[in-house]
Amino acid sequence: MATASTTKGGDLLDRLKAQGVVRLGIAGEIPFGYIDKNGDMTGEAPELAKVIFKRLGVDRVQPVPTEFGSLIPGLNSQQFDVVAAGMYVNPERCEQVIFSDPDYQMLDSFIVRKGNPKGLHDYKDVVEKKARFATGTGYAEIQYAVDAGYDEGDILIVPDQVAGLNAVEAGRVDVFAGTALTTREVVKKSAKAEATKAFAPLVDGKPHVDGGAFAFRLTETNLRDAFNVELRKLKKSGELFRILKPFGFTEAEMTDLTAKELCGG
């Protein structure tokens, strides 16, 4: 029988231990969470989840692939137990789910033609130079461009960073905006395009650094708190960086940001 104390913060952790498996919602986005060419689940979030859940007494992780926009609804309708997709923590999402503290922080960057002929270094440049602008479906970068004065109706929305690179190389757009990590990884093999230096977008006139984290149902504070304890140990020991490094993360993307800060206090 569940005791009053476990019921108060949710009993999901106890149930997961009993089952020996946790279902992870992933969104097929490299390098955050995806199925590789061998059909195996990988990415920074699933690999980190494997380590943390093992320490919490849950030996197996099972992927549940879905669209990015379906992650929070899927979590709340019990299709999976936790979102492991490197999801950015923001106040709107914090009303629907609870987040662990971020396991990484991230700046933005642009994909532009080699030599950056239009001199595009931030969203203000895109607006002032009337650049043709693209970004990805459901990306935070849409709002950053709009906040800088770009007309949302003029934004070309493409499925992902590969489609963004193709649009820049083909000359359909001048610039594609994404995370510093995805842009620098995708341009590595390109002869025509490059990634700009990472920068912080402005939110309410102040430079803003994003942080990605795991999401849990609002009632499951016990599981979230236990997850955070293990995450903090991994940060302290340096093991977190060792887990994330193969996916293109650098020391600059390690963070002490908290979910509370990113949720707006």
UniProtKB/TrEMBL annotation:
InterPro entries reported for this sequence:
Ectoine_EhuB, Solute-binding_3/MltF_N
The Solute-binding protein family 3/N-terminal domain covers 21-251
Which superkingdom heads the taxonomic lineage of this protein's source?
A: Bacteria
Key words, A-Z: Signal
Q: Name one Pfam family in it.
A: SBP_bac_3
The UniProt GO MF terms for this protein read: ectoine binding
- Give a yes or no for keyword Transmembrane in this entry: no
Question: Biological process GO terms, please?
Answer: ectoine transmembrane transport
Tell me the CDD domains matching this sequence: PBP2_Ehub_like
Please give the name of this protein. Answer: Amino acid ABC transporter substrate-binding protein
